Amino acid sequence: MTEFNRLHLIRQVDLFTLRLFLSAVEEQQIGRAAIRENIAASTATKRIQDLEDIAGVKLLERGPKGVVPSPAGAVLVRYAREILGSIENLRSEISAFTEGMRGKVVVASARSIIVPFLARELGDYARDFPLVELALNELENATIVDAVSRGDADIGVFAMAHELDLGGIDVTPYRRDRLAAVVPLTHALSARETVSFEDLLPERLIPVESMLGMFRAAAKRLGRDFTPPFHVVSAGVATSLVQAGLGLTVLPECLFSHELFDQVACVAIDEPWAVRSIHIATARGRVLSPPAAALMKQLLDRPRGEPAPQQA
């Protein structure tokens, strides 16, 4: 093969050949890649051979079961995906001048973030960009991070926790709020200005499922076990159980409604982990599509004031 020549590569390699090469890697057969790209198998083989000649190095390892990228081919795969992704973003941004922003944005978040924060902002975004398909998945904290890392969601909004694996995402601060104990008005703790987790632990504590790991970790630091009597997913269900006198719960302050204060007492929790730090997750090293970048900008440009009161 000829020696690598950068200018020769730029002049000779077209975008269709790069896409064909990626298809061959993904399909693991040049024949299937040819079908996928709607060209003859012989033409596909010739194009990839020409690409290897231009690059001056073998890009595919050929075997009886098909093809896999060589070490050099793996490098080309990475850059080809970036190039083709940038071309698609270029197409989207230019088309936005003539026909409005188009595309799809998938957002993953938890209910306790959607209700007080995201719902209003996603509504504004949908009105600003009516041609963008907006999808929202309500997930738990760890699942949000995984979804973004795998590429199943463009943007994830989650509460930071020490047990989360953030290796596959980039993280941007978004909002902060606090956790507070929700107790019956007749309970002895209702008159307190603050409580600690040690104060709550002897009580019948009803955790929302997403906070169960946090409570177990707090109990472990006190040398205690935490085995709750109820397992609930919804903050509304937990609050109903408190109103019925069945125990206490802990919720983010942003979920408290004005009506709630007539039925229960909300007491600040004096613990470092009670400050809830909410972040935006995007896939590490991946350039956001124009519609996703527009949503990210909107989320970060909004004032960081307290959310409007919501129904728990």
Cα-based radius of gyration, to the nearest Å: 26 Å
- The CATH class name of the largest domain reads Alpha Beta
Strand content: 15-25%
The mean pLDDT is 85
Number of domains: 3
Give the terminus-to-terminus CA distance: 68 Å
Q: What fold name goes in the CATH topology slot of the largest domain?
A: D-Maltodextrin-Binding Protein, domain 2
The appropriate CATH architecture of the largest domain is: 3-Layer(aba) Sandwich
Largest sheet: 8 strands, mixed
Global morphology: elongated
Low-confidence stretches: 305-312
Q: Which sequence of SSEs, written as H and E, runs from N to C?
A: HHHHEEHEHEHEEEHHHEEEH
CATH homologous superfamily designation of the largest domain:
Periplasmic binding protein-like II
Structure report:
- The protein has helices at 6-12, 15-27, 30-37, 41-55, 71-99, 111-128, 141-150, 197-200, 212-221, 235-243, 290-301; strands at residues 60-63, 66-69, 103-109, 132-138, 155-159, 169-184, 194-195, 249-252, 264-269, 275-283.
- Residues 305-312 have low confidence and may be disordered.
- The strands form two sheets. Strands 3, 4, 5, 6, 7, 8, 9 and 10 form an eight-stranded mixed sheet that branches.
- It folds into three domains: 6-97, Winged helix-like DNA-binding domain superfamily/Winged helix DNA-binding domain (Arc Repressor Mutant, subunit A), CATH 1.10.10.10; 99-175 and 276-301, Periplasmic binding protein-like II (D-Maltodextrin-Binding Protein, domain 2), CATH 3.40.190; 178-274, 3-Layer(aba) Sandwich (D-Maltodextrin-Binding Protein, domain 2).
- It is elongated.
- By secondary structure, it is of the alpha/beta class.
